[in-house]
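Tokens in:
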């Protein structure tokens, strides 16, 4: 499985699966979720909310609607209750469960963001390490192309540096 870091807007990516950095309610608010909602249309948000809430670390799968993908996997790395903060365990589980959900559907390509590292408050460098390690340890059945996406230049440099150190 090829694993690489790319920079850009996740909603502009073309893949079988785009992963949403979701909260347990699956309501698509700001950040990655907001970008996907704007790109996929309001029906994407409605479909996501209809599948929730989910437990922390779990996923829900919807159609991608107007996005250039088959599915959006909503990976709940942060709680929509309490302090709303992601944990190392929730990021690890959400990453693993997103990969598994894509594999279960026979998907070959997946784009995933830094789950739990935006509004959920988890440190980007530590979160990127957890995500890259989880992807590197995952044994796919159909996934061939996994892209870890970062939006800003600074985020991209951090994620790229961390992923390169894990992949070696």
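Residues out:
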């Amino acid at each position: 499985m090829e694993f690489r870091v790319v920079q850009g807007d996740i909603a502009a990516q073309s893949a079988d699966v785009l992963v949403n950095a979701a909260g347990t309610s699956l309501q698509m608010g700001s950040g990655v979720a907001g970008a996907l909602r704007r790109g996929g249309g309001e029906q994407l948000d409605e479909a996501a909310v209809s599948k929730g809430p989910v437990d922390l670390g779990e996923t829900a799968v919807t159609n991608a609607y107007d996005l250039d993908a088959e599915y959006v996997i909503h990976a709940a790395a942060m709680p929509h209750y309490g302090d709303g903060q992601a944990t190392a365990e929730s990021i690890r589980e959400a990453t693993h469960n997103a990969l598994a959900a894509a594999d279960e559907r026979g998907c070959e390509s997946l784009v995933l963001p830094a789950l739990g590292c935006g509004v959920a408050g988890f440190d980007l460098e530590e979160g990127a390490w957890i995500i890259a390690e989880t992807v590197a340890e995952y044994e796919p059945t159909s996934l061939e192309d996994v892209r870890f996406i970062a939006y800003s230049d600074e985020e991209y440099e951090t994620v790229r540096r961390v992923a390169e150190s894990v992949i070696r």
